[in-house]
């Protein structure tokens, strides 16, 4: 079986139309994948190439990561844990210390030893999730809607106002570590401004495919750089990292999990269109490709915009991204009122990814219908929906940790 070379992938307009969901176990050239070896050596790399070519842009190479501890309290949370903030100095695009990520790490003081750890980007800055006055306030641009933000800049007024979104003390109390950073450390969430990661990228040349690294891919790259650092510290079990994120950062978590196999558990929360939800759908209550590309043109590559009115030409759908996480466990989490994120469509994506899990010798989704609210489907491909709206809440963290208890603490 021969792979189609990246250079041979046609322009979006020349792709064949298919209204049904593409089979993750059929190659671009139309050949069936029937063995684990062909999946791992040929189809999996091909799907990664397709997602870069037509949707997320290129995954940049990793660079050296140097961690400099800026702050540490070994008796945080009433003595139950350690709170630390580390400046990650990242080499990128041939430049030394080109980018800095400020990674806040919370770890339980007991048990002693390497612990499974949740890692992911946050909205609004680390200071929102702790009352400790020593945690840095971000300097990068951010939306005014986040707590304490004035004129698109974080302020001290936001400190500690969102501790229920990343409930650090609860997480360490369950025996997990947690590591998080402001996504704007990598790339502020706005288009058309030459800043952050975008400023470092080489400018495109010639008339080749427009698959420059888009914002969601840059955030996923940043999450992987955090994994680089976490794998060097003794308190974290690098073989038991769980990547987590909400909404656009849920899309980021899924993409990071799909492309970086060091994440043993993948937890994309309410990730919707462009993440856990299908691109091919006709649900008027759910976000679609044209709408997301119009509202957030920087999240995905220019190539992806060619599918605004032609999703049937996509050579994949989002179940194929889920399949790239196989055979690792993954949980999709949603809310009953968050129809924009297409909870039922996400469930279908898990169903369609299951054959890849089965090819690799494990079970996938062990349910045929969506669970009722607050009932966790805890199969290797899991699903959870709670009452309520679009948010990351303590109830969501209960589901994350219940799923992790089964799959990371085995």
Automatic annotation (TrEMBL):
Transmembrane segments: none annotated. GO terms for molecular function: carboxylic ester hydrolase activity. Keywords: Hydrolase, Serine esterase, Signal. It comes from the Bacteria. Residues 212-361 form the 4-O-methyl-glucuronoyl methylesterase-like domain. Pfam families: GCE_fung. This is 4-O-methyl-glucuronoyl methylesterase.
């Amino acid at each position: 079986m021969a792979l189609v070379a990246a250079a041979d992938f046609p322009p979006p307009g020349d792709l064949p139309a298919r209204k049904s969901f593409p089979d993750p176990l059929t190659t671009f050239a139309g050949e069936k994948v029937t063995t684990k070896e062909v999946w791992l050596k040929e189809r999996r790399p091909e799907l990664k190439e397709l997602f870069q070519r037509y949707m997320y842009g290129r995954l940049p190479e990793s660079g050296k990561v140097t961690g400099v501890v800026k702050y540490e309290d070994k008796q945080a949370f009433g003595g139950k844990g350690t709170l630390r903030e580390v400046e990650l100095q990242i080499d990128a695009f041939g430049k030394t210390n080109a980018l800095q990520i400020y990674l806040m790490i919370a770890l339980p003081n007991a048990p002693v030893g390497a612990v499974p750890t949740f890692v992911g980007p946050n909205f609004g800055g680390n200071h929102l999730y702790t009352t400790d006055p020593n945690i840095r306030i971000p300097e990068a641009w951010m939306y005014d809607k986040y707590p304490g933000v004035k004129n698109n800049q974080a302020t001290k007024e936001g400190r500690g106002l969102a501790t229920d979104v990343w409930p650090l003390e609860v997480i360490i109390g369950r025996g997990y570590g947690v590591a998080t950073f402001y996504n704007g450390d990598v790339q502020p969430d706005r288009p058309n401004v030459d800043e952050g990661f975008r400023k470092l990228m080489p400018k495109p040349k010639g008339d080749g495919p427009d698959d420059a690294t888009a914002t969601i891919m840059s955030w996923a790259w940043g999450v992987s750089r955090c994994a680089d650092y976490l794998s060097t510290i003794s308190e974290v079990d690098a073989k038991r990292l769980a990547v987590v994120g909400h909404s656009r950062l849920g899309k980021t978590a899924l993409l990071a999990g799909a492309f970086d196999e060091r994440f043993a558990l993948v937890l994309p929360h309410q990730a919707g269109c462009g993440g856990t939800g299908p691109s091919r759908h006709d649900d008027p209550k759910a976000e679609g490709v044209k709408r997301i590309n119009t509202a957030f043109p920087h999240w995905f590559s220019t190539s992806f915009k060619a599918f605004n009115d032609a999703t049937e030409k996509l050579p994949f759908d989002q179940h194929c991204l889920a399949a790239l996480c196989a055979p690792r466990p993954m949980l999709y989490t949603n809310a009953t009122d968050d129809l924009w994120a297409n909870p039922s469509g996400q469930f279908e994506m898990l169903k369609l990814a299951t054959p890849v899990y089965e090819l690799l010798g494990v079970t996938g989704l062990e349910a045929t219908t969506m669970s009722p609210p607050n009932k966790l489907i805890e199969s290797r491909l899991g699903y959870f929906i709670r009452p309520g709206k679009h948010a990351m809440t303590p109830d969501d963290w209960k589901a994350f940790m219940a799923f992790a208890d089964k799959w990371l603490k085995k």
